[in-house]
């Protein structure tokens, strides 16, 4: 029996003026109540109750302790009740971090829809492309690409798989001869993702064999949208998420390179990440479920494609 349980029993004995009635109130045997009071008196170093065969009376110390004890227990009960409400009903501030480029086109309708569905939840959204520590940085959830997570202890759920394609401008390909095989890429310059995020090589499957092709680059960044703009200025070939170049491929501003050759692991995974499966607050659980359903609908009925 912990200290707060003993204080609750003490309050019940005082208010009922009876060990027997207090025992009934807590569903305990009378000796258990007597022992709890005795242990409480020993801990506090003073007698709390005068006991006779017919009644229980308070000592002067007990009267002072009873008032403070009641205040503390009432505050504790209110705290527990508030926590239970928050565990059941989505409420409070939800802090989310999201990858800027990979999520922005879907993040706005996701957040707007969630806020409409759960109006009591307030949202603080941080957009970044750097690695994050969800716990240390104080985030409840992350919508991230894999390199952003600096811990493998996070719970993750795949939301979307975005294909990556090799693209270049028609002008660049005219001036530098369009590659016909993966090996031809050795003679080209790339606009690359920073080496801290992605190794400067591409994997292809050729005649049933995996082939790794290192590439050269003069420009790199951590932002695929920036890389797209550099590619559009005829500065090299880029491995860009298809969702960022659909318009340019459609109007001929960009051309897909080695379209008929299979690239291995040619995708960007968008994942929902959070710290634990246990004791998840209602606001976090609500967002997890809402985001999963939102992306499934947006992906055409599949969690990833």
Structure write-up:
- It is built from nine helices and 14 strands.
- The chain is an alpha/beta fold and 305 residues long.
- Strand 1 and strand 2 form a beta hairpin.
- The radius of gyration is 32 Å and the shape is rod-shaped.
- It starts with a helix and ends in a 7-residue tail after the last helix.
- The model has no long low-confidence stretch (mean pLDDT 87).
Sequence-ordered SSE layout with sheet pairings:
Elements: H1 3-16, H2 19-26, H3 30-44, E1 49-51, E2 56-58, H4 60-88, E3 92-99, H5 100-117, E4 121-128, E5 141-144, E6 155-168, H6 170-176, E7 189-193, E8 201-206, E9 209-214, E10 216-221, H7 224-232, E11 237-241, H8 242-251, E12 255-256, E13 262-263, E14 267-274, H9 282-298
Parallel strand pairs: 3-4, 3-5, 7-10, 7-11
Antiparallel strand pairs: 1-2, 5-14, 6-11, 6-12, 6-14, 8-9, 8-13
């Amino acid at each position: 029996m912990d200290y707060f349980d003993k204080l609750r029993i003490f309050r019940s004995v005082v208010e009922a003026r009876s060990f027997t009635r207090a025992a009934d109130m807590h569903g305990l045997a009378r000796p258990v109540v007597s022992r709890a009071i005795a242990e409480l008196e020993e801990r506090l170093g003073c007698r709390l109750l005068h006991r006779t065969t017919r009644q229980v009376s308070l000592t002067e110390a007990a009267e002072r302790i009873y008032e403070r004890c009641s205040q503390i227990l009432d505050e504790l009960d209110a705290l527990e009740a508030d926590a239970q409400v928050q565990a059941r009903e989505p409420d409070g501030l939800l802090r989310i971090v999201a990858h800027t480029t990979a999520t922005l086109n879907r993040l706005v309708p996701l957040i707007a829809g969630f806020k409409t569905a759960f109006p009591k939840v307030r949202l603080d959204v941080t957009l970044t492309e750097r690695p994050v520590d969800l716990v240390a940085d104080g985030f409840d959830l992350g919508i991230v690409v894999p390199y952003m997570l600096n811990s493998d202890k996070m719970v993750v759920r795949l939301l979307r798989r975005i294909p990556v394609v090799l693209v270049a401008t028609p002008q660049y390909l005219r001036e530098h001869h369009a590659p016909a095989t993966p090996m031809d890429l050795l003679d080209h310059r790339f606009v690359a993702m920073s080496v801290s995020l992605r190794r400067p090589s591409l994997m292809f499957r050729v005649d049933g064999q995996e082939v790794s092709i290192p590439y050269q680059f003069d420009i790199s960044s951590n932002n695929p949208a920036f890389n797209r703009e550099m590619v559009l200025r005829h500065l090299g070939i880029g491995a860009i998420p298809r969702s960022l170049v659909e318009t340019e491929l459609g109007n001929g501003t960009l051309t897909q390179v080695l379209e008929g050759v299979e690239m291995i692991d040619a995708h960007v995974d968008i994942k929902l990440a959070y710290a634990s499966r246990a004791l998840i607050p209602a606001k976090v659980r609500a967002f997890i479920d809402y985001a999963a359903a939102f992306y499934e609908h947006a992906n055409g009925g599949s969690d990833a494609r």
